[in-house]
Amino acid sequence: MSQSLLPGARRRVREPSSFGAGQLDALSRACGIPLRAYRPDHVAERIERALEREGLRSVADLPALLRRDTAARTRFRRTVAISVTGRFRDPHQYDFLRRTALPELTAAGTAPRVWSAGCSNGLELFGVAALLEEIGALDRAHLLGSDLLSENIDAARGSGLEAVSSRVASRTRWEVRDLTSDGAPDARFGLVLCRNVSIYLAPDARHRLVDMLASTLTRDGILLLGRSERIADPARHGLAHYGPNAYRRQA
Ligand SMILES: C[S@@+](CC[C@H](N)C(=O)[O-])C[C@H]1O[C@@H](n2cnc3c(N)ncnc32)[C@H](O)[C@@H]1O
Question: Which of 212, 203, 211, 223 is nearest to 185 (CA)?
Answer without folding.
Answer: 212
